[in-house]
UniProtKB/TrEMBL annotation:
Keyword Transcription tagged: yes
Biological classification of the source: Bacteria, Pseudomonadati, Pseudomonadota, Alphaproteobacteria, Rhodobacterales
A molecular-function term among this protein's GO annotations: DNA-binding transcription factor activity
Record domain HTH gntR-type: where: 9-76
Organism this protein belongs to: Pseudooceanicola spongiae
Top-level taxonomic group: Bacteria
Keywords annotated in UniProt: DNA-binding, Transcription, Transcription regulation
A Pfam family this chain is assigned to: GntR
Protein name from the UniProt record: GntR family transcriptional regulator
Amino acid sequence: MKLSPLGEATRRDQIVRSLRDLIVSGAVPAGERLTETDLSSQMGVSRAPLREAIRELVSSGLLVSQPYRGLFVREFSPRDLEELYSLRTTLEAMAFRHCWDLRDDAALADLDRRHCDLVRTVERGDDPARAIELELALHSWAYELSGHRLLNEAWQRIHPNLQFYFTLHQRAHSRPGPRRDAHEVYVARARGQDLRAMLDHLEDHMRQGLLHTAQLLTHDADPGIRPGTGTTTDIR
């Protein structure tokens, strides 16, 4: 794989986006070592904006910086998934509690539009990355409608990890996105009148995804390979 040189504008943001896309797509394997020298050369950028971008990706949890060892792509363990699942479930349940009485015709139409966009992309089956974006957009609906600023900030902060998770989830099911009907009950409950039923379905919906993805990690796991023991990745 070869990275194209970046333009001058918004250099740091471009670096963040480019590296994030590589990581969450699985193009750079989990646990692989990256070096500033190689990244700077391949992307045609100076070390200063690259270091800023790396700090942001370390802060978001997609990269791991180990003293005296180097920089590594984040690995996801079953425990990592369990923590992400529990946090995500708690946040989304809170979002629904806050947005429940704010649902009007415009909000429900927006929910339907997001669902339709996701279904159309899944039916085409030619853009897994876009399917992930639209699945996140569907789940973002309750957060945005809630109007809760800190809740939305927490949701945005875990986005990169969720993108990584959804990529693993797609691998677990050997398909380029969720099933066409994967969110029909979710949307129907979100449009309904029973908040308790919505929260119960939310718990089940996320738990099933967690179990399938954790099984994939268990199958792929090699206890002899951890971050810091891999070789330097050539991402050209």
